[in-house]
Each structure stands twice: as C-alpha cells, then as structure tokens.
Amino acid sequence: MDLRVGTCGWAFEDWRGPFYPPRTDELAFYAARFRAVEIDSTWYRIPTARTVESWRRRSLGGAPAPQGFLFCPKLPGEITHDRLLEGSADLVAQFLEVIALLGDRLGPILVQLSPHFDAGRLPVLAGFLRALPTDFRYAVEFRHRSWIGHEDVLALLAELGMAVAMADHPRYPRMEHVTADFAYLRLLGQRGVFPDYARTHSPRDEELAAWAGVLQDLPAAVTQAFVFINNQFEGHSPETVRKLLQLLGEDLPEPRDPNRPLTLFD
Predict the structure, then answer these.
(1) For helices 89-99 and 49-59, what crossing angle results, to 10°?
(2) At residue 14, does pLDDT exceed 90?
C-alpha cells in the first residue's frame, strides 16, 4: 500500500528552528521529507493560479524529493459551510479549474462538511457529489453525528468511488468505513489547547497505536492511504508524523539541525 503521512499545512512560525532551518523555502524543505500535505488555506479562499503554480514548482525541489509528492486541498468553506453545498456550481468549477494546475501533484480533494449539515440533507449531498467531475478524487468528512453508520450515504460514496474521511476529534463522529480504493484519515485536536507548536505537549501514543492498527488492517483493495495530522493533536505535528510512521515500520529523514552548516546533502 502506498502510505502518505503528512500534516495539515506547512506554514507555521513555531516550526522555524524545531523543524525548519533558517532562511529556507519551507514548502521545498517539507516536500523533501514528507510525501503529502493537506492544504488548509483553500478552505478560506480559492487560491490564484500563480499561487498554485508556485506550490507545484516548489514541491519539485529539495533533496531527496519523495516520488510523487501530493497536495490534498480542502474544498472552500464558502461551498461547504456558507452555502451548505447548494447553489455552488460556479464556485466548484472555479476552484477545480485553478487547483487542477497542480497536475500530477494533486491528490484527493477534501469535502469537509459543516457540523450543521446533518443526515436529513442526504439528497443535497447526493446531488452535489454526483455533479462533481469524475477526473478528480474526493474524500468526504462528516461532522454531524447523524451520519454515523448511515448505510445510504456509505452506499453512495462506494458507488462514486469517494472515501469517507475518517477523523479523530472529540466532537466529530468516528467513521471507520472504507468506500474507495484509497483511505483518508485526519488526526485532529481542539484549537487553543497548546501555547505553541514548537514541541509535543501532550503525547497520545495509545491513540496513535490504535490508528496504526486501523491502517495495517485496511482491506487489500485499498492501494493508497493518506493520513494528515494537525498541531492540535499533540502539539507539534511533524513529530507526530514521525511517531506514527515508526509504528508502521517506516521513518522520516531527520530534520536538519539549523545550527549545522549546509552541506551538499542538504
């Protein structure tokens, strides 16, 4: 299985020093050590073509560059939260047109539903998902508990080849269903808990071990798995990524000591 573990975003001031060396292109450095990233900023606004082209170009740099580094953007919140998926065809088309500029660096797109979008809106969701262009991949995250074990929505996603975005968060439903040939997992925490994101503040080793087991037990039909971890999960998501990979028998290159001079191998 092609396993891609990364973080929810890459631009964090608190990572400078503990993870990023000084005077470095943060995205290029990140892309040389991780295999994927979730783009949180696209939830707030549709990026410009220039920005997307810059992301792609910078992800090609670094050494050693992982094969096929992928970006997984969020669908804009104006679509999922403000409009609750209705009357948004124009915005969807605009977003997909620009995000497609990532080319072969584009991974699944996350459709993060509003916490107010309950199972009574299944017809709206079905109409929206069926209208999405099929030349992209999608994962859908449910944030209202009425979706737990909802057989009709699981059948819909399986029919369309879209993944359930599994989420570890105290307020969101726990849905560990496989509905596509790829899996999508998000390990999240609540905002405002940690004073900074420069180090691990609250280890969650038991939860990581449990999720490692879920990943190891995925059906053989799942050929690719994405896992994204935010800073709120333990306090410093790059270290959490490392811990999860080690549980799965893998590892990341050591982040370079910012006090050590650059060499040909950096």
Answers:
(1) 40
(2) yes
Is there a contact between 185 and 166 (Cβ–Cβ < 8 Å)? yes
HSE-CB at 15 with a 13 A cutoff on CA atoms is 22
The model's confidence at residue 61, banded by pLDDT at 50, 70 and 90, is low
* Cα–Cα distances in angstroms (integers) from residue 138 to residues 19, 107, 126, 208, 266, in the given order: 30, 9, 13, 24, 35
What residues are paired with 20 via a beta bridge?
Answer: 16
What confidence tens digit (pLDDT) does each residue in 170-187 have?
A: 899 999 999 999 999 999
CATH at residue 237: 3.20.20.410
Q: What is the pTM of this model?
A: 0.92
The total domain count for the chain is 1
- Give the SS3 label for residue 49: helix
Query: Which 3 state secondary structure label does DSSP give 37?
Result: strand
